[in-house]
Amino acid sequence: MPQNWLLSSRRRALQERAAIVQAVRRFFVAHDYLEVETPLRIPAPAPESYIDAIPADGWFLQTSPELCMKRLLAAGYGHIFQISHCWRKAERGRLHSPEFTMLEWYRADSTYTDLMHECEALIRAVAADTNRPSKFEWQGKPVDLVSPWQRISVSEAFATLAPVTMDEALAAGSFDEVMVTYIEPRLGTPRPTLLYDYPASRAALARLKADNPCLAERFELYIAGLELANGFSELIDAEEQRARFESEEAYRRSLGRQPYPTPTRFLEELSDMPPSAGIALGIDRLAMVLIGAGSIDEVLAFPPEEL
Amino acid sequence: MYTVSDLRKGLTIVIDGDPHVVTTFEFVKPGKGQAMYRTRLRNMITGAITDRTYRSGDSFEQATLDRRNMQYLYKDEHNYYFMDNDNYEQVAIEEDALGDAKNYLKDSITVDVLFFRGHAIGVDAPTFVNLRVVEASPWAKGDTSSTDSRLVKVETGYELRVPPFVGEGELIQIDTRTGQYVTRVKD
User: Fold this and answer.
1) Chain A: nearest CA to B108, how far in angstroms?
2) Predicted TM-score of the model (pTM)
3) Which residues, including other chains, have CB under 8 Å from residue A193's CB and lie 6 or more apart?
4) What is the third-level CATH fold of A5-144+229-306?
5) Taking CB atoms and an 8 Å limit, are B27 and A91 in contact across chains?
6) pLDDT tens-digit profile, chain A (307 residues)
């Protein structure tokens, strides 16, 4: 028996994880997506209020490959996907590791509703391709991957699951707290939930709804209470994107967070980007749900504390 | 002062003048939202349980506790009893106040008993404790856990996952900070 029995005991989880990643790749190849690799260390991450990048020799480790992938879209690469490592400072818990694996994909001439369908198709295909039943339990909650999945707007979710409305929570500054306490634990069981139409203030890079500019065309996927993916119709108005970045960056600095330079090239090229939709899905969490792991550590070869 | 990044199970902090121990701790962060640190705290004086949510930037006062090295004697229905081997003084501590430390209280083990203003309010187990496996479930590849390990019970009644090669009657070392198996120990 090797000295590191814990690492050796994860063999089955790591094999199953690898099979899942391979099935994800097959799905995108079969759907004519181009697999791309963008740099992990970048000069200017997208400023977001509550996500912190880790500095790396004057630049930063990416918190997501979003900006580089959008520059590819702007240059005419219409269907692209990437599986890459991302870093988010100080995010550590049962469901978080500061270094994790993200699947991100983008499609031109599409909206967030197209992505909701594709997201559903992807996970059902991966489950089938890795010989998993479509009905199972995760952390005591029943899951049934059969279509159609539940679609519910954020404001409906507040109205039916929380003691306050979405507007009341936003006014009271308790949106996130109500979300994790009352709403998230009840989503995605048995059918996965696509939670859509977030308040505009919660989507720095998403397009606002044409008929209601208080809401953004953004959605999240939940399975058994676990948040797996975040997607949206992309904002392609360069001027508006610049203004949003400036206000996010000003907010970040007011909180004393690490200042970022402006992602100038991204903003310059954004006007070339066709109407598109993009989504990021946590590969570690997908593996957790499908394998039945309660903690992200069970699907990582090396959780940070074991390095 | 502690910050939210110091929060962990077993940390003792002062809230409204009373020492509290963190009994459960969870990092939560909704998509693109603010990080939150959900804790359940036990007032070490009154035993009252409170749930509190903290955010990054919050800080905590460290509880100053006195420690005395004492030997575990026995337990009855409600309490665990410890003795100071220098002056033979005995103290009783309620089971609830011991938290996870009770998993490591084997006969005659020496531990640090924590005192707040003269009252014994808790116990710090040594970082590593050797305990004997008294029950081992049969191990089969493909059981419900995602890892290849087996569930065993040790002499204190505590249950944990260990490598499949660890059998009944064997002595194992446990890290009391994590509750996890470290290695087999030769008798």
Assistant:
1) 30
2) 0.91
3) A149, A150, A151, A152, A187, A221, A222, A223
4) BirA Bifunctional Protein; domain 2 (3.30.930)
5) yes
6) 678 888 988 999 999 999 999 999 999 999 999 999 999 999 999 999 899 999 999 999 999 999 999 999 999 999 999 999 999 999 999 999 999 999 999 999 999 999 999 999 999 999 999 999 999 999 999 999 999 999 999 999 999 999 999 999 999 999 999 999 999 999 999 999 999 999 998 888 899 999 999 999 999 999 999 999 999 999 999 999 999 999 999 999 999 999 999 999 999 999 999 999 999 999 999 999 999 999 999 999 999 999 9
